[in-house]
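Researcher: Quick test of sequence recovery. Tokens follow.
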């Protein structure tokens, strides 16, 4: 019985040794196959699309860098020409809105201003809230006048309500900016 037990252990050892040798052989074959697919030519082929994308990004960045002085110049020009100084800004905005409303045939009820300094920008943001009243074609003409005005306005919101006598009331909220 000892002899059969010893024979069984021997067979198991030999089978385990054969499996380990075959596993090592497969690992070597796998390693060589993986190494063969990574030739310099295959690496070059694999990396070319990525190189093209990165090259396009670099060219765009260089173009932006070249255009930056012109963009800065245009921004400074806009800042000087389109934004009024704080000292004269409020009166010009009030008179401009009044003139646009008068040309459109509207009555202005109230215009209020709320100022907010934008830190490190050299700009003051001014919220303008106003109400004008009249018929629908006059309101459309007023909005068109805002778009064509020499002053810079950002139209935040509009709300339309009916008023007495069949006219309409337009509540509007604008933003404009002054140089500080």
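Model:
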């Amino acid at each position: 019985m000892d002899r059969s037990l010893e024979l069984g252990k021997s067979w198991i050892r030999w089978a385990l040794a054969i499996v380990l040798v075959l596993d090592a052989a497969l690992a070597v074959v796998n390693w060589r196959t993986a190494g063969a697919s990574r030739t310099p030519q295959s690496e070059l082929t694999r990396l070319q699309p990525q190189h093209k994308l990165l090259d396009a990004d670099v060219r765009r960045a260089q173009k932006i860098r070249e255009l930056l002085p012109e963009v800065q110049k245009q921004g400074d020009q806009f800042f000087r020409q389109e934004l009024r100084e704080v000292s004269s800004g409020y009166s010009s905005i009030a008179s401009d809105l009044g003139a646009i409303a008068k040309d459109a045939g509207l009555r202005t009820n109230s215009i209020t201003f709320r100022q907010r300094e934008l830190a490190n920008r050299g700009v003051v943001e001014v919220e303008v809230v106003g109400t004008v009243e009249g018929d629908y074609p006059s309101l459309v003409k007023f909005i068109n006048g805002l778009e064509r005005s020499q002053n810079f306005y950002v139209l935040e919101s509009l709300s339309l309500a009916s008023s007495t006598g069949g006219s309409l009331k337009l509540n509007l909220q604008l933003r404009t900016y002054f140089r500080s």
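The mean pLDDT is 86.
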